[in-house]
Every structure is written in structure tokens, then in C-alpha cells.
Amino acid sequence: MARRSPAPKRKAADKNHVLGSVTQLASEMPPELGESMASVQKFDSPLEQATTPSLEALKAYTLGRQSLLGDDPTGAPALFNRAIALDPNFAMAYASLGTWYNERARARALR
């Protein structure tokens, strides 16, 4: 049986640096997980650039997405607005809020 290399570990300085630590860990994962190094290097971007550096904003956004995709999406806008208030540069929160309003407008038009 092949010997596995030890799993890399990181500790974030505080909750505002968690996503940076996750990004570092992801880039250090061993290639035996299936993705080639060329692919990792090509598509590697810091997680906080793809989403937000604010863990609280990410939590609000995630809860908003869950609400949006759940049985009662009425709570989603407040959660997306909370994410935006925590990080005004959080593009996906704006996009999801826009999706909610678009779906609501479409549903009204079909009535």
C-alpha cells in the first residue's frame, strides 16, 4: 500500500483570514486527489477573490442561497442584503439578490 503524505494544516489568525487559509490549503493539496498541477495553476484564484474575504458575509450569502433554493425563498433578500452590507464588493451576493427579484417579477407576470 502506498504511503500517503501528511495532510497540510493551516491556522487562521482570526475569522477574517479563514478564507485565505483555505485557499492556501487547497493549493497545497496533493495531486493524488485527481487534479493535475497544470489545471490547478491555470484555475487557481484566491477564494476571497472568487467570493468575499468576509466569513460573516459568506455565511449570510450561503444562508440566502439556501433560502432561495428552499421551500420559502422570502427570507433570501434580507440575507443577501446582509452579505452586501458586510462586503459591498461581494458580486455574487448582488447577483443572487438580482436573481431573486427577477424570479419574483417573472412569477408576477405569469399570474
Helical proportion? 55-70%
Question: How many structurally independent domains?
Answer: 2
Give the uncertain stretches in residue-range form. none
N-C termini distance:
63 Å
Number of DSSP strand runs? 0
Structural classification: mainly alpha
Number of helices, where a helix is a run of at least 4 consecutive DSSP H or I residues: 6
Which value, in Å, is the CA radius of gyration?
A: 18 Å
Mean pLDDT: 78
* Fraction of residues in β-strands: under 5%
Taken from the alpha-carbon principal axes, the silhouette is elongated
Tell me about the biggest sheet?
Answer: none
Which series of helices and strands comes N to C? HHHHHH
Please outline the helices and strands.
Layout: H1 18-28, H2 37-43, H3 47-50, H4 55-69, H5 76-86, H6 91-109
Helix pairs in contact: 4-5, 4-6, 5-6
Give a structural overview.
- The chain is an all-alpha fold and 111 residues long.
- The protein has two domains: 15-50, no CATH class; 55-109, no CATH class.
- The chain is built from six helices and no strands.
- It has helices at residues 18-28, 37-43, 47-50, 55-69, 76-86, 91-109.
- The chain is elongated.
- The mean pLDDT is 78.
